[in-house]
Amino acid sequence: MFNLQKIKKLPGETVWRDVASPLGPLTVLAADAGVRAIAFAGEQTERAKIDFPRARARVAIDKAVAQLTRYFDGTLRNFDLPLDLHGTDFQQRVWELVLKIPFGQTRTYGELARALGNAGASQAVGAANGKNPIAIAVPCHRVIGASGNLTGYAGGLEKKGFLLTHEGAIQPALFGT
After folding, report:
1. Residue of 130 and 49 predicted with greater confidence
2. 36 and 29 in contact (C-beta within 8 Å)?
3. Do residues 2 and 28 touch, judged by C-beta distance below 8 A?
4. 48, 140, 163, 170: which is the annotated catalytic residue?
5. What is the pTM for the complete model shown?
6. Which of 8, 35, 83, 140 could cross-link 132 (Cys pair, CB 3.0–4.6 Å)?
7. Is 127 a catalytic residue?
8. How far apart are CA 45 and CA 92, in angstroms?
9. Closest residue by Cα to residue 129 from 102, 97, 103, 161
10. Rounded distance between C-alpha atoms, residue 1 and residue 58, angstroms
11. 53 pLDDT tier (thresholds 50, 70, 90)
12. Do 159 and 149 form a contact (C-beta atoms < 8 A)?
């Protein structure tokens, strides 16, 4: 999904906390400006945690953990978190569009490209979407292929399918569960 190693070059103290989820452990990384990442467990996540102090009572992390818990128990549809997203201008524009996709709905890469004023930019939109560092809260899982197929999720298509089923956007049979 993203290179956590780049985060240590960002200004401000970054802290982390692990969160249990139905998809396995998630790591929330945040700085004073807001949440920088929500990442699925993996080698890069473990390496990043060595570089950052463990958060005890950071406001952004506490808010993210509480909202993730409510999202997974079905009582939260819209995240309201301070975000500290870092990316290119194009990535930022894509992520802004992704943030506008309502709970329980999907958009295609082509629809996002057209919304950006460049119908031929579907692959670039997909690449930008794949660099989204804040899984779930910046709902890149809501972006699907033109055929309606689940494509391109750094956490894996099973997790993408779980999230879309959890939100009621697809039926479980559409991704093989």
Report:
1. 130
2. yes
3. no
4. 140
5. 0.83
6. 140
7. no
8. 22
9. 97
10. 24
11. low
12. no
> Distance between CA atoms of 96 and 170, rounded to whole angstroms?
23
Name the strand (E) or helix (H) holding 96. helix 89-99
Nearest residue to 15 (alpha-carbon basis) of 79, 71, 60 = 60
Indicate the SS3 state at residue 1: coil
Question: What confidence tens digit (pLDDT) does each residue in 59-78 have?
Answer: 888 999 999 999 999 999 99
- What is the rounded distance in angstroms from the CA atom of residue 40 to the CA atom of residue 124? 23
Q: Of how many residues is the chain composed?
A: 177
Q: Give counts: helices (H), strands (E), the chain.
A: 6, 5
Q: What is the spatial distance between Cα 138 and Cα 171, in angstroms, rounded to a whole number?
A: 22
Core vs surface per residue 141-169: b (16+ CB within 10 A) or e: bbbbeeeeebebbbbeeebbbbbbbbbeb
CA dihedral 106, 109, 112, 113 (to 10 degrees): -170
